[in-house]
Queue: 3 jobs
Job 1
Amino acid sequence: MDSEQFLRIAKALADPRRFEILEHIASQHEVGCQRLCGCFPVRQATISHHLKELASAGLVESRREGQFVYYRTRPAVFEAYIEELRRRVVAEPAAARRSAARARVEIAANPIKA
């Protein structure tokens, strides 16, 4: 997963209403846009904007059937995001520990003489 998509996903998940919409979609196999509009106390344009952001991040995909649009989640994208998040978060402490260990070795090798 490239950094750009990683950041788009993080941004998409950070909005509370967008996350609610995503949870609602994930709780079902597929959800129509009209049905989503009836589930949340916001205008249709706001729902459309949130769906556009979720789709842009790759978290949902859409399917058109006549005049209706249906959305479903993309589990493989979630798995890739979680793996990338784990790599970034877990790798940092390990790098910091290695850096601290090197600093201790350098200090031990070059003690200050009083």
Job 2
Amino acid sequence: MAIKTFNIEEDVYKQFSGYCKGNGISMSKQVELFMRSMIEDDPKVKKEFLERLEKIRKGKFIKVNSFAERYA
């Protein structure tokens, strides 16, 4: 186990910290999983993410030309 220091924008840190606390997950573990996904040749997490993203892209969407007009 290594302890490292990173420079992160305060706003990003606060939002990510809140996200992790709200979901009951470890902030350091999330960072570790992200780093691992970037260096692995065939990361399982990345594959699952891409599969979910593809399902979302194929979803049913409505075309909105102007959010101001549609949601006024």
Job 3
Amino acid sequence: MADEKKNIMSDILDVFKNKDEEAKKTPPKVVKPVAKKPVAKKPVVKKSTAGADAKIKAVRDRKAASKVEKAMHSKTHQDLINVAYKAAEELKIAPWVLLRAAKWGHFTDDRGKKYDGPMIDDIDTLDDAQKKALKKALDL
């Protein structure tokens, strides 16, 4: 049995030796690198967003104007008289000057009535400083 084992072992060794010799005989395969063709990129075309930006701005302006309009129309005449006094103090003018300039002199007739007049920016008898002071006093 020991002889059988030696024979089997020598057979196995012979197989491995033969494979090593065959590997030495055949030259290794040389793989040539394949040059890749450059991929032509499509030019990036930027679309103008000016039209979309203008639409977005218009929607935002309408929403802001709507909020201002709701805020103004939620005020009573007395609220706006108080606002005029506060704004006049900032401008260092008499409150009645500002009330008359805004055409709000009649507000004392019905102090509890909700305001239904134009927005501050639309009152053409007010100058820019008066409009700014009134909007600031209203927190607009």
